[in-house]
């Protein structure tokens, strides 16, 4: 075990930033700094952009929930007056993670989203055996400012299947937008994280969007969330049987990511930090105890708070009764009182015995 911890500490003595982004262990900017080669990322030091695979921009890595936020091309399909496709249209972009098996497109965070009038779009996996899609239609321009969700009127959404590593978008229009040309001649389709998506931020796509992508690269991408595992094809039981090659640090737990995907590490309840951080690392403390008493907004206490390892206690002050984490009530008047010249005992309505 000592050898394993020393190896962890050695690996973590690495550059952990790219531009403004943190690159936490088990990821790394070279193979010697990552837990395995599948978690190695590339940093463009000129632009400060973090890259997955050859050209997928990375916007965020979360070790707390086992996700990575990437950018993926938005599909655009714009037509001219005769229904011909405009230059710059890109109706069939890919997400390809087939050779990066530690990652899957999150089915819980993302949705497939389509904007347009007379616009249909679908996505298929690499085998073309799994996919989904939807149709967006409208008879006039749509203002999404007051909208809270896609309704099918100018915008539609559908869910993402589990364990998807590759998808290709296909989109078109039943009339090549000739039937709605007086107010719409474009459609767009993309996979997007529902926690950052707000339909009121969008408008129906227009041909100018094809030009803006050359000057505003982020307008060309949607934010997509990937789930990742630290090891593939291993259960927690198998991984824990070989402690010298087990990446979960102190005060962490192993969580199996179902259907044979692999496992991830998380901090135990009451702890926070990087569950993969090596305990002997000079750069990180790993999973640290949360001092709940310093954050009463999240961890309420109406009495005397005391922090404990992985938890906290809260006792109501003298003269009050109840669960200190919920509320403390003043003692009700005594129902029974008995005593002599030396002592007095009272039983309250809460059946508590008080010696006075």
From TrEMBL:
Sorted alphabetically, the Gene Ontology cellular component annotations on this record are: membrane
Question: Which Gene Ontology molecular-function terms are recorded?
Answer: calcium ion binding; polysaccharide binding; protein serine/threonine kinase activity
Residue span, EGF-like domain: 240-278, 289-329
> What keywords is this UniProt entry annotated with?
Disulfide bond, EGF-like domain, Glycoprotein, Kinase, Membrane, Serine/threonine-protein kinase, Signal, Transferase, Transmembrane, Transmembrane helix
> From which lineage does this chain's organism come?
Eukaryota, Viridiplantae, Streptophyta, Embryophyta, Tracheophyta
Q: Principal place where this protein is found?
A: membrane
Q: Which SMART domains match?
A: EGF (SM00181), EGF_CA (SM00179)
Disulphide-bonded residues: 248-265
Where found?
A: Membrane
> How does the UniProt record describe the way this protein sits in the membrane?
Single-pass type I membrane protein
Q: What is this protein called?
A: EGF-like domain-containing protein
- The reply to whether Transmembrane figures as a keyword in the UniProt entry is yes
Supply the InterPro entries for this chain: EGF (IPR000742), EGF-like_Ca-bd_dom (IPR001881), EGF-type_Asp/Asn_hydroxyl_site (IPR000152), EGF_Ca-bd_CS (IPR018097), Intein_C (IPR030934), WAK (IPR013695), WAK_GUB (IPR025287)
